[in-house]
Amino acid sequence: MSVPTPTEELEMEPCCACISSDPNRKKSKEFFANERNFVHWLHMGSHLGAIATLITAIAKKDTTSTRREVTMVSSSLMALLGALFVIYAIYMFALRRFTFKKREGSVDEPWGPLFLTIALCVSYTIILFTNVIEIA
Q1: Cα separation of 29 and 73, whole Å?
Q2: Residue 55: helix, strand or coil by DSSP?
Q3: What is the SS3 assignment for 12?
Q4: Tens digit of each residue's pLDDT (9 = 90 or more) over 101-128
Q5: CA-based, 20 to 30 A from 55: which of 4, 8, 36, 79?
């Protein structure tokens, strides 16, 4: 077995396992990518819901009524955002699935994540300022 020199061209045959002409392979990759995206958004929504539940449980133990009200508003805002994340996940999963089946149009939707991220940052800022004002 000789080692090829840099000037020699190497002819490589494609591996049968690597190249597939099966159209179902592409469909399954699209489906699982869509499902993974759905699970990630759903995970974020459930985490926000869990945080809201934790904040509510802590607020019920607080004896100061003003602080309890601020904390309940904060937890309600977080629960609402969690629900928005879940609704967005379901909407995008259905939209992408429909688009993949029809093979038309784009599945890129840049405004949803931007809106949800801005809403999350605004809610965190409101929670921070209401708690700082309450403490001061």
Answers
A1: 42
A2: helix
A3: coil
A4: 777 766 777 787 888 888 888 888 887 8
A5: 36
